[in-house]
């Protein structure tokens, strides 16, 4: 099987003509065996119209060799022949095949979960709506269903949770998302205004504005042959790690709140505020909006801001360590968090889990180490942290450890760092290469983020695809609550803290 081979340090996009066009049968046979090996997983797989054909693209990652492998195949747009389903062999492929079927009515033979993925605004079957979603059902005199959502009492996004319970015990949870019909990916192709596209990237998931905009910036910079300076690469990693700290600390507080541990909640709220206020003092926005821009920056670090960041992260790390120690020594918290919401490593591997949640189950999926970019590939080699129990406590300990790792990384990058006196400014006008594929592959705080852009003959973005880590990890949450009491769902849910809007593209 022939692939185009590149890596995450490549500075140039790939000409579409250079990506091998193969037969689906050959790709299927290759992935059938290759995906049995843990070193491989799919970062993206999607279809897009190509004149009178439907062209499929796959972005396959070799985590051992640090390679990114690209291939494509085509089928006639109105061809009714069912493609053999890869999901039937490798469940991690289910979101990709479900989306392709939803958007283009492609049939996958033996597809075990042929359900809409997100009810996209441009879905092919308009009769398929969230109101007639085919929830799984089980019949039994002792069983009952509990419906949660789609309208929640809090401020989170809309999503429907359908529990099938035997008394208080959860037998099955099915999660349906897709109430907003945001059309984010379509919006990227509806404008040539680079600044507007950047703002769209910032809005994909508000709690990951820095991560998604970093992926977008990398995508654009490959399409414009822009080399990022050492200082800009350094500052982008600092921003990513500040975002990681803020969200992990916030989730620690949320978990504390759900079990009535008020001291942990209040302490983490204060530390999270201090962290996002550090970002605000840097760029003017608590969530880092305005900080990451393609080809340059409007908010370069100064000596004063470096000193401020170093002083703040030192204090945050020290105070958060005290909170972490209190949590680890609290019998009440341990009794709720340990052995609750377990997702075994084997299941996380089977469903394609990524990021922090996967690492909490012992599955080390981390783009910073498997496909490093920028400073991760040069000065600051990343050693992934992992846990092995796969329970709520493991996911909490991942947060505690990663916050301290982020503190250490920011300090190592900024201590002795001298910012450039004249930083490159963003470039919103530089022409994009025509008929090329570009990608941005980033490890956000939740996990693996992959942006892919295709340009047409005029050098305009014709297709833009986004993969957010929640795409795989929502199924992990459904597995985590099986066999648990339904009252444990809130802490299981918070232990993942997945993105509704990041899924509803």
Give a verbal description of the structure.
The chain is about 40% helix and about 15% strand. By secondary structure, the chain is an alpha+beta fold. The chain has a 4-stranded antiparallel β-sheet with strand order 1-5-4-3, with helices on one face. Strands 2-11-12-13 form a 4-stranded antiparallel β-sheet. The longest helix has 29 residues, at about 230-260. The protein is globular. The mean pLDDT is about 95.
Q: Determine the strand fraction and express it as a percent band.
A: 15-25%
Helical amount: 25-40%
Contiguous runs where pLDDT drops below 50 for at least 5 residues: none
Distance between the termini: 32 Å
Tell me the CATH superfamily of the largest domain: Cytochrome-c3 Hydrogenase, chain B
In order across it, which strands form the biggest sheet?
1-5-4-3
Shape: globular
Mean pLDDT: 93
* Computed CA radius of gyration, to the nearest angstrom: 22 Å
Query: What count of domains describes the coordinates?
Result: 2
Q: Given the structure, what is the number of helices? A: 16
Give the helix/strand class: alpha+beta
Instruction: Return the string of H and E elements.
Output: EEHEEEEHEEEEHHHHHHHHHHHEEEHHH
Q: CATH topology of the largest domain, what is it called?
A: Cytochrome-c3 Hydrogenase, chain B
Number of strands: 13
The major sheet is characterized as: 4 strands, antiparallel
Quickly give the CATH architecture of the largest domain.
Orthogonal Bundle
Can you identify the CATH class of the largest domain? Mainly Alpha
Summarize the helices and strands and which ones pair or pack.
Layout: E1 4-6, E2 14-15, H1 24-34, E3 40-50, E4 53-62, E5 67-76, E6 83-84, H2 94-104, E7 108-109, E8 143-148, E9 160-166, E10 169-176, H3 184-189, H4 194-202, H5 209-223, H6 230-258, H7 262-283, H8 303-328, H9 331-337, H10 345-351, H11 355-360, H12 367-370, H13 392-414, E11 436-443, E12 448-455, E13 461-467, H14 470-480, H15 489-496, H16 500-503
Helix pairs in contact: 4-5, 6-7, 6-13, 6-15, 7-8, 8-13, 13-15
């Amino acid at each position: 099987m022939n692939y185009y081979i590149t890596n995450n340090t490549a500075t140039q996009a790939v000409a579409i003509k250079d990506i091998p066009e193969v037969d689906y049968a050959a790709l299927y046979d290759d992935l059938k065996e290759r995906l049995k090996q843990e070193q491989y997983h799919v970062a993206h797989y999607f279809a897009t119209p190509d004149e009178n054909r439907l062209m499929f693209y796959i972005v396959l990652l070799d985590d051992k060799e640090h390679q990114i492998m690209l291939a494509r195949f085509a089928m006639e747009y109105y061809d009714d022949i069912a493609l053999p389903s890869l999901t039937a062999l490798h469940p991690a492929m289910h979101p990709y095949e479900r989306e392709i079927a939803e958007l283009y009515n492609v049939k996958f033979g033996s597809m075990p979960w042929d359900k809409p993925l997100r009810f996209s605004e441009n879905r092919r079957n308009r009769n398929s709506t969230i109101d007639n979603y085919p929830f799984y059902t089980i019949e039994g005199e002792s069983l009952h269903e509990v419906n949660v959502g789609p309208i929640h009492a809090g401020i989170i996004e809309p999503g429907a949770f359908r529990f099938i319970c035997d008394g208080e015990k959860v037998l099955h949870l099915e999660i349906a998302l897709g109430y907003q019909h945001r059309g984010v990916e379509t919006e990227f192709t509806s404008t040539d205004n680079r600044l507007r596209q950047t703002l769209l990237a910032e809005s994909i998931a508000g709690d990951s504005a820095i991560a998604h905009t970093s992926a977008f910036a990398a995508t654009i910079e490959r399409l414009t042959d822009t080399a990022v300076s050492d200082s800009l690469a350094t500052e982008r990693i600092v921003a990513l790690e500040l975002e990681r700290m803020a969200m992990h600390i916030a989730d620690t507080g949320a978990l504390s709140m759900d079990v009535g541990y008020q001291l942990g909640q209040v302490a983490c709220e204060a530390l999270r505020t201090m962290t996002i206020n550090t970002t605000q003092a840097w760029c003017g926005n608590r969530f880092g909006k305005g900080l990451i821009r393609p080809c340059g920056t409007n908010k370069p670090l100064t000596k004063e801001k470096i000193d401020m960041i170093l002083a703040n992260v030192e204090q945050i790390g020290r105070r958060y360590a005290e909170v972490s120690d209190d949590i680890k020594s609290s019998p009440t918290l341990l009794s709720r968090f340990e052995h609750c919401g377990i997702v075994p490593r084997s299941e996380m591997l089977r469903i394609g889990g990524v990021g922090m949640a996967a690492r909490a189950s012992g599955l080390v999926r981390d783009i910073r180490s498997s496909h490093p970019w920028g400073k991760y590939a040069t000065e600051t080699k990343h050693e992934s942290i992992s846990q092995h129990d796969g329970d709520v406590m493991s996911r909490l300990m991942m947060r505690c450890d990663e916050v301290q790792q982020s503190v250490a990384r920011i300090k190592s990058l900024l201590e002795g760092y001298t910012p450039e006196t004249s930083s490159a400014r963003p470039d919103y006008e530089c022409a994009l290469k025509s008929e090329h594929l570009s990608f941005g592959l980033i490890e956000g705080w939740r996990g693996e983020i992959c942006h892919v852009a295709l340009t047409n003959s005029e050098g305009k973005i014709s297709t833009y695809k986004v993969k957010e880590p929640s795409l795989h990890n929502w199924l992990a949450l459904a597995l985590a609550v099986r066999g648990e009491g339904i009252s444990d769902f809130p802490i299981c849910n918070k232990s993942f803290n997945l993105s509704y809007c990041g899924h509803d593209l």
